Amino acid sequence: MVSRIQAHEAAVTSIVDLEDGKHIATGSYDKKINIISMARNQKIHTLSNRSSVTGMVMTSDKARLVTAGLDKSISIWTIIRKNGVSINLT
Question: pTM for the full model?
Answer without folding.
Answer: 0.84
